[in-house]
Amino acid sequence: xxxVIGHPLTEIDINDGTSRPPTPDPLRNSGSLPGKGKKSAAExxxxxxNVCYLTRRESVSxxxxxxxxxxxxxxxxxxxxxxxxxxxxxxxxxxxxxxxxKVEGVWEAxxxxxxxxxxxxxxxxxxxxxxxVYTYSWYKKLVGPDNATVYDWTETARETGxxxxxPDYMEWTAxxxxxxxxxxxxxxxxxxxxxxxxxxxxxxxxxxGNQLTLKEDINLDGDFDDVFESPETLTxxxxx
Length: 240
Fold this sequence. Notes:
Number of helices: 1
Radius of gyration: 36 Å
Helix content: 10-25%
Mean pLDDT: 75
Number of strands: 11
Largest sheet: 8 strands, antiparallel, barrel
Distance between the termini: 26 Å
CATH class of the largest domain: Mainly Beta
Oligomer: single chain
Number of domains: 2
């Protein structure tokens, strides 16, 4: 199963749009103009008063602007915290977790039987989904030609990795895989030996009560109708 899935990116651009005209220069017209004599004492006093008035106004403007800036910063913090909380579901779970889409739990489905001279080989898959991780286990059971059980249900392979979920779609990224070895003499299996592994899966799903249908286009032919070791479309029942 090889699949590729993309993640939309979300960009947030915060721009308060605040602007104000340049602060007037209070000294621009306070001195003598070219070709004119010096100002009178009364004019000088008036100029000084104008300078004082403009200086006070500029101080008030700067104080007001600083207050607005602090308000913007506080609101920006509130927005960032809100976005962080929104990214988590109930109980602190991620918004893309199994719990967020109600697919958490243990799900099981049986594969088609295979019959040969050794008997009938039964198989089933068990998938455990929790938070942002998954575990998939393969089980086998062999029933002899005389209808006697050669070995009962045994885990023969396992894969674990990270998972993310969206409406009707999930992605799995494997980080380990292991298989058990069969001893034909004793008709028993060893424990599963896990090793590092990398693989990606893109899966369509449908949840209907305690039934979870998974669809995987294993051979990438654009449909979900093929049957290999397991069918491309398989319905799992929740067992826990």
